[in-house]
Design a protein that fits this description.
Elements lengths: L8 E6 L5 H12 L2 E4 H14 L3 E2 L2 E2 L1 H7 L5 E6 L4 E6 L2 E2 L7 H11 L2 H14 L5 E5 L2 H5 L5 E6 L2 H14 L6 H17 L12 E4 L5 H9 L6
Parallel strand pairs: 1-8, 1-9, 2-8, 9-10
Antiparallel strand pairs: 3-4, 5-6, 6-7
The structure holds cytidine-5'-diphosphate.
Length: about 230
């Protein structure tokens, strides 16, 4: 791709576990763009909450979390080995730990806290200032970058998504059942879509990509074909 082509912002939103990060990473690699997994930032804050007993029976201690927010430093650092940005929490690489099911089971209530969203959205907007970025999440096309030049809303059938996430976690050696994964996916979608603060929804100008019956290569090409000037 020519260097003179204007850099844009690509926003990829959608349902849980439909492969947003995977394809976003591939597109960023192809275009030589920065890739940011905004979900990793919400997961890192959730890990902080779990470690500091700020979640009891699925309920977040919002008052305490808000007081502690200035002690929570979440940022990305380039990993030379994987050639991707890892997520760090207060000086520790937590890229692996944030993917555990225990984090997935608690992240939606944390992501619904307005103070958490304000903090993370400001960081995300800063990262996109120079454009040339692919960011995936739930509110990227609606709130973080409403001016993004390309917005994609990704989805897939729940069973397909559950199977993919089950395979991913069991391949890493995590002992999980297909049923609990599927329940988590459905519950997170419900929670994310019905929260008051920046609920998950398709931006009016986003294009829908249902990848239930697509290969990774097909969805990669599908997105590339929608980028002007390729
Ligand atoms: O990869 P997966 O689809 O499982 O989820 P994720 O992208 O890692 O996001 C984890 C959770 O963070 C979501 O279920 C949302 O509750 C929250 N999230 C959000 O509220 N806003 C974002 N921009 C990204 C994630």
């Amino acid at each position: 791709m020519s260097e003179n082509i204007k850099k844009i912002i690509i926003a990829i939103d959608g349902h849980s576990s439909c492969g947003k990060s995977t394809v976003a990473k591939e597109i960023a690699g192809k275009l030589n763009y920065i890739f940011i997994d905004s979900g990793a930032m919400y997961r890192a804050v959730t890990l902080y909450c779990l470690r500091n007993n700020l979640i009891k029976n699925g309920k977040v201690d919002i008052a305490q979390l808000s007081t502690n927010l200035d002690q929570i430093k979440v940022y990305f650092r380039f990993n030379e080995e994987t050639r991707h940005n890892d997520i760090w929490l207060n000086g520790e690489n937590v890229e692996q730990e944030i993917r555990l099911l225990a984090v997935s089971q608690n992240v939606s209530p944390v992501a619904a806290v307005a103070e958490v969203r304000h903090l993370l959205v400001a960081l995300q907007q800063e990262m996109g200032k120079s454009k040339g970025i692919v960011m995936d999440g739930r509110d990227i096309g609606t709130v973080v970058f409403p001016e993004a030049e390309l917005k994609i809303f990704m989805t897939a059938q729940p069973d397909v998504r559950a199977k993919r996430r089950f395979d991913e976690l069991t391949a890493k050696g995590e002992k999980v059942s297909y049923e609990e994964i599927k329940a988590n996916i459905i519950e997170r979608d419900r929670y994310d879509e019905t929260r008051d603060e920046s609920p998950l929804r398709k931006a009016d100008d986003a294009i829908v990509l249902d990848n239930s019956f697509m290969t990774r290569e097909e969805q990669f090409e599908w997105i590339l074909s929608r980028i002007d000037g390729r």
